[in-house]
Amino acid sequence: MSQNPQQDVFVSNTLPDIDPESHIIGLVCVHDEDDNAEPSNDGWFLSDFYMFNHLLAGQGQRQRWYTCVDPHHIVKNNQELAHDKP
Description:
Blueprint: E1 23-28, H1 43-55, E2 62-67, H2 71-77
Parallel strand pairs: 1-2
């Protein structure tokens, strides 16, 4: 670790091992007011949030995913946020 915590970076190329007894909670608070969900703003948080939801499907004992925005609305208005065919 460096002396400056702002310079420390943790890089991972894979998801961690998920214990079968784990409970997964996903939360993203990006909203669609004032174009905050646009790709040029915070829209990529939503895109990554839904990708993690897909990648972690079936992992752990239980999952809950929470968002402020309807995913169909976001993809309809911002096709570039979809990682695959919407």
